[in-house]
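name: query_chain
kind: protein
chains: 1
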Amino acid sequence: MTVDHVWQQVEQLLATATDRVVLVAPFIKKEVFQAALDAVPTKVGEITCVTRWSVPEVAAGVSDPEIAELAQRDGRATVRLCHNLHAKLYVADDRCLVGSANLTGKATGRVPAANIELLIETGKAHPEVERVLAAIEATAVPGTVELAEQIREQASLLQSDEDSPRVVVPGQDEQPARWLPETRNPDRLYRVYNGRHRHIGSDVLAGVIRDLTYLDIGPGLDEQAFGSAILGRLHAMPELQGLTAAGRMNLAEMQAELLAAGDLSAEQAQRAVETIAAWLRYFDDVHFVPIGPWEIRQGKELT
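structure:
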C-alpha cells in the first residue's frame, strides 16, 4: 500500500463520475480540493462540497475557506457549510467512499508523515449514507466567497490577539473551565459575526472575537437565529442555572459566587455580573427588579 493510498481511492472514485459528485469533509485544504476538482471529468455538471468553517479551526490552519474561490472558478462546484459536521463521505453518482479521511494533505497521504486513515466503498443507497446526506440537506448553509473572506479575516484577528493564549479548536481541544462574556456591548456581536466591524476599535474587536470563538456559533445565520444560539449558550452557563431553574437570579449572589471561585478580583466579579446582565437584557426576555439586591427575572415587566 502506497503512502497516498487514500488519495488514490478518492481520485479513482471521482474519475468514474458521469453526473454528480459530492465531497463531504469537515477539514478541506485548498490544494487537495483543487486536485479533487481536477480529478472530476469535465462532463460532470454538478459538484457539491460540504464542509465546516470555524474561525478557530481556520486560525489553526486545519481548513481553508478559500476553497469557495476555487469552487467559483471551477463553475460546477458549490460549497455548503454544516457546522456540526464530522462525517467524511465522497460520492460519485451511486458509488461512495466513507471513513475517516478529510480532504487534507496529511489525511490523503499527499504530503510526508501522512495520517493512518480508512475509506471503505459502499453504495449511495446505503441507509446511513442517505441519513447523513438528508441531515446535511436540512441544515447546511451556503459557503460563499464573501463569507469565506469574513471567516479568514476573523481568523487572522484571532491569530494576532496577544491576549488569546492559544487557539481553541472546538471538538478538538478542551474548552476553558469557565467562559464569562467579555464584550460589554452585546449588540456588537452580530455585527462582527457578520463582518461589519470597521468602526470598532482594535482592543474591543479582539474581545468580541474571543467571545465569538468561545461561543462557537456556526456561520451564515440570520440575526434572529444568531440571537437564539447565543441565548442557548447563556442558559448553559453554570452561573445562570438559578435563572433557568427558578426564573429569577440575584445579582449580588452571582457576584459572591464568582468571587468565591478565587480567580477573579471583586472588581472583575462585579464587571462580569454587569456584563452578563447586559447580555441577558439584550438577548433574553428578562427584566430587572431593584428589590434589595438587584434581581434578574424571566419575562417582561408588568406595568
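note: The first helix runs from residue 5 to 15.
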